[in-house]
Amino acid sequence: MASYYYLISSLPMLSPNSPMPFSYDTFLEMCSTSVSDSTYKLLADLKLTSSEGPLVEEWHSFYSVLLSELTQLRSAKLGRTYKSDADRDQASATLAASAMNAADPLTAEKMLLAYEMDQLDQLVGLHYFDDYTLFGYALKLRLLERFGSFEHERGKEEFSDILGSLQKQVTNL
């Protein structure tokens, strides 16, 4: 495994309560001179659902279980059946249930983000200047990128529009 002392030490800390310090493209530019071509390609193609790369395989196992738990709960809430093939994880099931019962979708996403970032910290463990650390950082950036795409005000407007439409339908009945 490669060692990236300068690159990793120059990266700012990431937290679920902080905005992205820079874009994922900027991160890739920073990596371009420090990583091998094969590592760069894996980083460039990295998605939250990816399954290839250092640490990414372990992340994929965790993330698949979490997504399955969320899908199962959403399906139940909609009265649909959902057959889960994934292994159950009590911590993920508990967090997914808490997120589904959150006061609003943004609060739920904040809960999920904190849990996912904590899981990445656990997966990185005692790795400091290697591929595990680099890919853990990249996945955290992807999580923050996803979270940053939620627009609170736009979401409230959408919700109000949907609620208003439902109220009109009920009134017309």
Please, could you describe this protein's structure?
There is one protein chain. With 173 residues, the chain is mostly helical. It has one domain (5-10, 19-172). It is 66% helix and 0% strand. The chain has 8 helices and no strands. The protein has helices spanning 5-9, 24-31, 37-45, 56-77, 90-100, 105-124, 131-148, 152-172. It is elongated and about 65 Å long. The mean pLDDT is 86.
Poorly predicted runs of 5 or more residues: none
What is the molecular shape?
Answer: elongated
Helix tally equals 8
SSE string, helix = H, strand = E?
Answer: HHHHHHHH
Largest sheet: none
* CA distance, first residue to last residue: 66 Å
Mean pLDDT metric: 86
Strand content: under 5%
The number of distinct β-strands equals 0
**If you compute it from the alpha carbons, what radius of gyration comes out, rounded to the nearest whole angstrom?**
19 Å
The class by helix and strand makeup works out as mainly alpha
Helix content: 55-70%
Return the domain count: 1
List the helices and strands and how they pair.
Blueprint (H helix, E strand, L loop, with lengths): L4 H5 L14 H8 L5 H9 L10 H22 L12 H11 L4 H20 L6 H18 L3 H21 L1
Helix pairs in contact: 4-5, 4-6, 5-6, 6-7
